[in-house]
Amino acid sequence: MGLFSFLKKASKEELKADVNVTGAQSEPYQGQQFNNYTYQNDKQKLIGYFANWTCYHGYEPAKVPVELLTHINYAFANIVDGEIALGDKWIDIEKSLGNDDDTPIKGNYNQFLNPNGPLKKRNPNLQVLISVGGWTWSKDFSDVAAEEVTREKFAVSCATFCNKYGFDGIDIDWEFPIKGGMDHNIHRPEDGDNYILLLKKIRQHLDKLAEINNRPYLLTIASSSAVYNYSCLDLKAISEPLDWINLMNYDFSGTWCKVTTHQANLFLEKPLEDGTVPTHNSVSKCVEDFLAAGVPANKLVVGVPFYGRGFDNVEANANDHTATGIYAKFNGALKGRSEEAGNFQYSEIREDYLNPQSGYIRYWSENCCAPYLFNPEKRGLIVYDDTWSMHYKAKYAKEKSLGGVMIWELSGDANGELINALVSTLS
Q1: Is 49 helix (H, G, I), strand (E, B) or coil?
Q2: CA-CA distance, 87 to 347, in Å (whole number)?
Q3: What Å distances lie between residue 345 and 35, 50, 109, 421, CA to CA?
């Protein structure tokens, strides 16, 4: 749309024009405000995860900016007895959300999937996928994928689920094959090979359903963007039965780390003055690795977080590279509004920390293309994404001819600042 012609490339070298001497942009990035506008882009999708539990905190389907999205991944469905199952029956299909007395299926499913419902009227082209698993419910994927009979059972249940409720496809969120994830997860050395067979089997049954209903069905996955997890997988073979891969380009850092560092940086940091390399994952490294493995660019969707992570008791030293709190030792998770210490939605960051009264100073990492906040008095640090980093990530996806951008998760951006930055750049 010509809004950013002065930014020719999303490269580290060309970001310097946008920052002042303190390393932070002098003004917030202002994307367009979209009223009565529907985002349409055949090349770059904009996918948002809707987490069903956010309804219990007041974020119901009616608040989703469906006009600005091409797809919604509804999170999550569970796995029960080897088949896909409702994640929360009451909120998914039973709770009345108004004007649904005559519908057999109520709840969020009716809101998102009813072709005559209010959301589809706002965006008739919106497609909604059911996401299966997630961090909490990935325990049984290894068992489901292990044998032909279990793969068949699960795949049939996925096609049946789409047909019954009206979903446009399946999003498999296995966290993670072979290693990683929750401690109780089942793992097998052959998970990687079995994963490919499972995806092929799901594709087979979705294609059969497509023939019956005379319409296509989508199959996607959410993939780890950590080298530790994806380096042991045949990425090209995994991608072949898929429409695209949602890269979870976040959670690069947290309280499990030894020092504070960015959680969703676009680029890797340069080695520090003592020779250490503080970042090992980045959006660009993940994308480059997947491309090098043979995954087509248009099947890669960059993931962005609508939340940040906080560190407490940060040991900043004014005389070395830790002066602004980043790459410094810390002790514990910074507590905010969330029940989960260390987790901050962007809306909370915007309201509580991006103001002079908070005592937090905003910094911008030119090398990593990432913002962070540090309070030297309270010794708290928050790594997060803002409108600028969203703009640069969307610009990166666009210039690399990637499949678009995915959001985890929609409730974190209550005022629509982040999604407006993404749509402004992708349009």
Answers
A1: strand
A2: 26
A3: 24, 14, 25, 17
Using the predicted structure, report yes or no on whether residue 11 has a pLDDT greater than 50: no
Which residues pair with residue 72 across a beta bridge? Answer: 48, 128
Residues 129-144 pLDDT 10s? 999 999 999 999 999 9
Q: How many other C-beta atoms can be found within 10 angstroms of the C-beta atom of residue 2? A: 4
| Pick from 407, 390, 389, 307: nearest CA to 348 | 307
Averaged over 261-267, what is the pLDDT? 98
Which amino acid is it at 310?
Answer: G
Q: Do you find a cis peptide bond into 340, omega within 30 degrees of 0?
A: no
Residue 94 is a catalytic residue: no
Mean of pLDDT values over 330-334: 98
Q: Write down the pTM of the prediction.
A: 0.94
Angle, helices 417-426 vs 387-399, to 10°: value is 30
Which residue type sits at 394?
A
The total of other beta-carbon atoms located within 10 Å of residue 25's CB is 17
pLDDT digits (tens, 9 = 90+) for 59-85: 999 999 999 999 999 999 999 999 999
Residue 21: predicted pLDDT: 35
- Alpha helices (H) along 136-223: 141-146, 148-165, 191-213
- Residues pairing with 347 in the sheet: none
Q: What does the alpha-carbon distance between residue 50 and residue 63 come to, in Å, rounded to a whole number?
A: 11
Which residue among the candidates 14, 27, 83, 175 is catalytic per the annotation? 175
Give all domains of the chain, ordered by start, each with its CATH number: 36-308+385-426 (3.20.20.80)
- The pLDDT tens digits for 391-420 are 999 999 999 999 999 999 999 999 999 999
Q: What residues does 408 pair with on adjacent strands?
A: 305
Rounded mean pLDDT of 249-268?
A: 97
Q: Whose CA is closest to 384, among 354, 356, 358?
A: 354
Q: Which residues contact 393 (CB under 8 A, 6 or more apart)?
A: 10, 266, 283, 302, 304, 369, 385, 405
Pairing of the two strands 300-305 and 404-408: parallel
